[in-house]
Structure to design on (670 residues):
DNA sequence: CTGTTAGCGCTTTCAA
DNA sequence: TTGAAAGCGCTAACAG
């Protein structure tokens, strides 16, 4: 591989001049610039990005941590981030945290040790306090899908409470009063907020939150299966089931159908997230849209603005969920 | 951030010695090593990986290119690669090629310019010839889900022809003779091979390949929808529909049901890939398992062995698909 | 507008 | 077993 030195020799200029044309420094005459460009292409020269990083103290790399690499939710999130960043020549280093505190901390550590210019992370298990400490460090960190007190400027998040409220309100307005709820892992902020919204909608309509109609799932299909099974075993009546994400809704549907339910007549089901597959499961899932791809773009823009000093970027820290009405809920009012 | 120099001063040894303990060089006395380690932890020292890369000409980074970051298929693939590599302190730089030749070439270029030690790429649009040229370059490149003549040692692939054969054979053995087929984009090797297997099974059972029962899809839900719609419009009878991947199968199911079909009684559907969701769509999809996560692990091992010279790793270049029998196909023989 | 000259923080001979 | 010193390829003052 040719180096900058060889280019400078061939072009008959100094190292500094070559460096200037590489970096589009305007203080180079057109003639000189041309000479250098010819020399570069003649040698098939490409700058060594590692050397550039060392000298400039800027790696053009952004570390991303998600809980899992697979899964429709994280896929959309990463796609949004990568597309935005790649357009500006930045690259993403990706790792996983598996929703476990130790692994999340280790993942962040790993990315920092990689000299990333900034981090965009989706942490689920690390507490706010530790996040405050991490944010003190040299590497700027931004948080996806989380709202941390005092760190609002570092967060891009969805109003999950409103989403949970919307979901339950919708079900109630269709005439349901016996409503079961499968939540996600209790320690996850998303679970907590969605549940809070659920309770608010219930209260607003003078409905009680019934522990017997409540199950703690895992945000995966399994959680939906196990949840509905446990709920059914309690022999408490419910005409609608709200799941805190689409994957659990899908699992619950599968289980219900395996056990003789006709959907949605026998049981109405509401999801959350609007993952791509939600419109392809049967019956088509009514759910709450989570604009995670857009949020990924926004997180990337946040980095572009704060770390790379791009101008004229407007940042939106908080996103609103919206209702996606499909076929999985029976309307008891018009029926 | 403390540098190696400060550590050496505090420990009262030379730079070289500190470097040795960082790199676990055995030629350091225990006493000296301890002194250095104490100094390191006292200063909170962590090596600058960029400087290490420049000096050692090894970045410990592997470039990954997939067509899309979202989607269950690529998610599983990346998860396999990342898990394996991360266990050895390597990190992955991920970018996308969007199944377009220009973008794929640009993506590879991008990763090479990032000084990756090796690349693991899933290319769909670049032809074999260009891949041969790319493989001549300085950066070792390995190909996922592809088998290129003369580059077998650089490939990890699935026997797609066998998969296509298995799929069609299964459908035929359940008594179906009027079988429609929705393929993926014609230029993609996966499509071609699966189709070839389909034709082989047909021929083996003295069935004709009928152009009227054939549609070229896009490997997405849309392709399944549009495909079955077009097929139905031709008014040619078919009792079974084979889709070249699960996403198209899912799209076809949704469309069929929207148009009054009872599944699987009115139409049997076969998928391919066994993505996670295939067991949660209704009816549960019979499909061909594509061990893409395992293949991701293997691609990573290939890099570990060839690039990082790990010993005692056995590489398997070719993987076999297997049948996953579920509920989406009606057995006409026993019925 | 162009060139000189120090580094960036680490690895790696080579000698001792 | 340890240290000295020469780079790795580039950027960024500074001087001219």
């Amino acid at each position: 591989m040719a180096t900058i030195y060889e280019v400078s020799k061939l072009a008959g200029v100094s190292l500094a001049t070559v460096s200037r044309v590489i970096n589009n420094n305007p203080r180079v005459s057109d003639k000189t610039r041309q000479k250098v460009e010819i020399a570069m292409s003649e040698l098939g020269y490409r700058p060594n990005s590692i050397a550039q990083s060392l000298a400039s103290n800027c790696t053009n790399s952004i570390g991303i941590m998600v809980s899992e690499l697979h899964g429709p939710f994280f896929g959309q999130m990463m796609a949004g981030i990568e597309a935005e960043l790649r357009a500006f020549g930045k690259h993403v280093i990706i790792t996983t945290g598996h929703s476990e505190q130790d692994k999340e901390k280790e993942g962040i550590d790993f990315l920092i040790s990689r000299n990333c210019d900034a981090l965009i992370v989706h942490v689920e298990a690390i507490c706010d306090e530790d996040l405050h400490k991490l944010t003190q460090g040299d590497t700027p960190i931004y948080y996806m899908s989380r709202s941390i007190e005092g760190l609002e400027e570092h967060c891009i998040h969805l109003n999950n409470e409103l989403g949970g409220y919307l979901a339950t309100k919708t079900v109630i307005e269709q005439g349901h009063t016996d409503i079961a709820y499968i939540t996600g892992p209790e320690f996850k902020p998303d679970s907590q907020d969605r549940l809070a919204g659920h309770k608010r909608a219930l209260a607003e309509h003078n409905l009680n939150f019934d522990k017997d109609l409540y199950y703690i799932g895992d945000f995966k299909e399994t959680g939906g299966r196990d949840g509905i099974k446990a709920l059914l075993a309690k022999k408490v009546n419910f005409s609608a089931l709200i799941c805190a994400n689409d994957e659990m809704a899908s699992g619950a549907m599968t289980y219900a159908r395996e056990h003789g339910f006709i959907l949605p007549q026998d049981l109405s089901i509401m999801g959350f997230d609007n993952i791509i597959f939600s419109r392809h499961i049967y019956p088509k899932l009514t759910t709450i849209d989570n604009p995670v791809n857009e949020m990924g773009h926004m997180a990337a823009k946040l980095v572009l603005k704060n770390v790379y000093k791009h101008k004229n970027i407007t940042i939106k820290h908080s996103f609103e969920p919206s209702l996606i009405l499909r076929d999985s809920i029976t309307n008891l009012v018009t029926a």
